[in-house]
Amino acid sequence: MHASLQTVRDRLTANYGRRRRNAAPDGxxxxxxxxxxxxxxxxxxxxxxxNLQAAGVxxxxxxxxxxxxxxxxxxxxxxxxxxxxxxxxxxxxxVVERYAGDVQxxxxxxxxxxxxELLGLSGIGAETADSILLFAAxxxxxxxxxxxxxxxxxxxxxxxxxDGESIKEYVESGLDRDAERLAEFHDLxxxxxxxxxxxxxxxxxxxxxxxxxxxxxxxxx
Length: 221
Hints:
By secondary structure, this protein is mainly α. The protein has 2 domains: 3-19 and 143-211, Orthogonal Bundle (Endonuclease Iii, domain 2); 27-136, Endonuclease III, domain 1. The protein contains 12 helices and no strands. Helix 5 (68-75) crosses helix 6. The longest helix is centred in the middle third of the chain and has 19 residues, at 81-99. The radius of gyration is 18 Å and the shape is elongated.
């Protein structure tokens, strides 16, 4: 394990405690939450799932049969509803066409194969694909989002020109390839991103402040 990532994880868990995502009630709900980027117990995800349940939508075929306007209405609590509704509809059609509508069969597919298939869908980028793999399928596929970019690059742990795939490989090779630990590490970095590593960093009080290079957070030249 890379010493820097070990130290980062230790400091974050010491400060924030262990992070555990709440399990979704089934594979379909887990897939919806992963696409929304939400914990199943978050108020926004819970309301979306409640809306789907009230509408009698409990599988991919149900999503395909719904109109786009209905999907937008149901997803509204999660924000960015139209864009997310369009993604959810594409994903549902993919599940129906490729896996006969069986979400569990899709989630049980080989990780590399499934990731490649998801990335081939319009509007599904690496962040969303890895969210589905990690949080819905329980595969050790690290999610690289804006917070991850900022924290790792500002501390000098990875070059500023590193792309998402390079960062993903760096983290996965530096931490145990365990889905639960990678999920926890992602969510801890997300906390740092919200509280400290913003567009303009607020380093005072950050649990990673002492790990900054001399002179403070790095910025691209």
